[in-house]
């Protein structure tokens, strides 16, 4: 137990005053042997045991009264496991250093009923109140957007700080913890408490990230000098009530369709909800009004939800004559979380799609060129050119959307350094590149290393139908808009090249080796396909569908970086550059310094580019890390978890001096009752003169 005025505990010896007075009274009288008195004492010997017990009870209650009064004046707090250290209980001060890790992701904006305080507001207010009560000498905030330490003057600053408000960017808990670790080491902090405020979303915690192991080992070395306090917000239970189900809306595609008489924006979008809370039945349907805003006009479309999911595909919105560029948004009625009720989009005349195929094999060049030039939409223009590796330096990269590389990897440490640099710059601009292994063992062995990836050796595949698994939920091999899966499992692979490096497998072979992998990059997309379209290697060219869809999707994503419009995830753009953008729609109260983290539509003043920023797709998934995962992540470090719900009014730290006053009152009543004179029964009260028989 901790005390806000622990110096009052120095008065606890005063609780011995009743005992001291009793002992003094015992010594005031001298015992003298007197025959008559000895006779009375002998007669009263039967009651001596009770009298002694009563005297000790009276002394104990009087002592308890004084002790309870001292404890009450010391203002004890029922901080439980969230209180300060043992030293803080006697010094009256909280931890010397406090670091608050604040999750500002969109999921933290949900509330219990859609109108009360959100998880973020509840967490910030409770942490500020707790730190104001128990005190702290130094307070540092690390919020999920910037993930850089910021020292605050007082806990109350958390309540008014814009950087502690809502955001549309995902959190990265390992990055935030790494920033806290660096701050502790750089400033050589002593006793430190790290408070984490989060709702445990799996996408934000990244429990499978390899950084957790090194972070845990680093914090274990501090011993009890660093303590972690997790303020976790559980998911809101809707109890099957339709008006409390949280829905999210997302525009899958916004494409401009230019005709001779009129132009239109063709929208494909999806409304998703918690199917379990909606009885998880395909027969249960619900109609949701969707508000579509396009520049100054608005319209409402009813979307039917079945089993918690509703889709609107190919919805045409006719534009005013002469308009071929603009922006808009879609929104659904308010529910538990306003952060996923809006989605912004931009549209413009799509630029011509240009693909460069780098290969020395005529057959590979012909297949890849054909797959890139045949577009799914006749209104789109797409061209492709085949060049040899020796002609790469002559490529004009300004209008290239996709690079298909079937040659040895250029190495930054060799004469190919300039080529590697150009490819990196192309990816950083937003372009896409797919690497295929070069034919021949000698070419593969002399291949360099790029994006920390390297080809190894060619391997034969005994089982031609060797595709074990692939990701059909996202990226190049995702299912179609109609929900139809790509026929990846029917592909035949006779030969594949080994691949070294850290990448995410989008398709794997029967032996667990990757067939298609993606390398994580800040912008653009880098893919490695471990086989080629040659008939001796695979059936990519013969079956055709998978290869064509892969190339067209990569080409479409790469073309988006060339147009006058962009659709970015919150937190991806450079914050310094984004601060100069002009906000056209979105939260007007947001700071310009946080443009990169706030959903809305912005315009680059210098280039006139329209940029739509929205939350990332994983933010719409309600998956959380389990309790066992959280315990494993903090295993070996002093860690305490407290669960709260959005809108909870209970405090993390509560004063309990009233309980001690109640104890004191009960002790005083008990002491008074024991001090009452014992009433003796009057025998033979009815005889004349009261003479006893």
TrEMBL record:
Domain called Aerotolerance regulator N-terminal: residue spans: 1-76
One Pfam family this sequence matches: BatA
Keywords for this protein: Membrane, Transmembrane, Transmembrane helix
InterPro entries linked to this entry: Aerotolerance_reg_N (IPR024163), Double_TM_dom (IPR011933)
Bilayer-spanning residue ranges: 6-24, 56-74
Superkingdom per UniProt: Bacteria
NCBIfam families (alphabetical): two_anch
Protein name, UniProt field: BatA domain-containing protein
Origin species: Aporhodopirellula aestuarii
